[in-house]
Amino acid sequence: MRAAAGATTTADAWNFVEGGSGGEHTMRENGLAFDRVRLLPRVAVDVAGRTARTRLLGLPVPVPLAVAPMAYQTWLHPDGEVATAAAAAAAGVPFVVSMMASRTVEDIAATGAATVMQLYWLRDRGLFRELIGRAEAAGCAALMLTVDVPLLGRRLRDMRGGLVRPATVVAANLGGAGGGAGAGRAGRSEVALHTKVLFDPSLSWADVAWVRSVTRLPLVLKGILDPDDAALAVDAGADAVVVSNHGGRQLDGAVATATALPAVVDAIAGRCEVLVDSGIRGGVDVLKALALGAAGVLVGRPLLWGLAAGGAPGVTRVFDLISEELHEAMALAGCPDVDSARRLRTSVAGGGC
């Protein structure tokens, strides 16, 4: 699916999807860290009637995954987020709407997908409040505040190519802020310049508590890696946290999420739900995330590959592959359900149990 997507997208769009920050060390390490996790399968367990059904972000799901928030999806396919959300609705999994989506939250919710609205901390507090109100009115199940982007990471692929969005690829939830005009310039990313104007780097825990106070929706904090921050997130009223390094697109050199996850789970101590993203590439990775303590995962780039390669049917194919792989891995690991998957022992390649 990745190969098919790469053959159908423009160089700018492909670099935007595939690129990480700096030397892309953290982006690569995300996958390698999941690769190093080893599972200790259980045997003589009846897995004939196994199920991956559970609850995620308060919603019943057939498999413990949701669609990660990803911007500007019409860059990859004309239907963009509406196609991805339609596939998510068919699969029965939640769709997290990026604040920078190229289709509105209202259009995305109209697909029937269970939606969660992702937000960045904006300089314009009025617009921030307006987006919360729109999310509530659209029937979103939760808000997801991304807390690891005081400014955009130094994404060298975008800068070297002079990345400019096409004029048709807009931030639809922000009143249709348009794409870049004219040609790009080496050393400059139009996307980075756009977000620098919008995002406020002053976000504090007091601000997080304020966000908690102005909405009735559950609040998810995305971008947690340090266990101390996980504890502070609970104190600020978070109903869930996402262990995330933004897919390796923020601080290059940050710890991989599979490495950070167990300590965050320990710090949370069951007080709120813990999810994880960055580096999930198949059903075995989902099982590993569960064994490391996550309630579920957010899947990102693989779904964009499916979208670029084949629209909604391409996304559906990715969902189907991950689900099939997860069910097979659960059977082979002796897990009849998600709770038993969370009780699996793990080791790290080269280390002990």
From TrEMBL:
The keyword Oxidoreductase applies. One of its GO terms (molecular function) is oxidoreductase activity. The keyword Nucleotide-binding does not apply. Its cofactor is FMN. It holds the Pfam family FMN_dh. CDD domains: alpha_hydroxyacid_oxid_FMN (cd02809). It comes from the Bacteria. Residues 1-351 form the FMN hydroxy acid dehydrogenase domain. It is an enzyme of class 1 (oxidoreductase). Keywords: Flavoprotein, FMN, Oxidoreductase. Its EC number is 1.-.-.-. Belongs to the FMN-dependent alpha-hydroxy acid dehydrogenase family. This is Alpha-hydroxy acid oxidase.
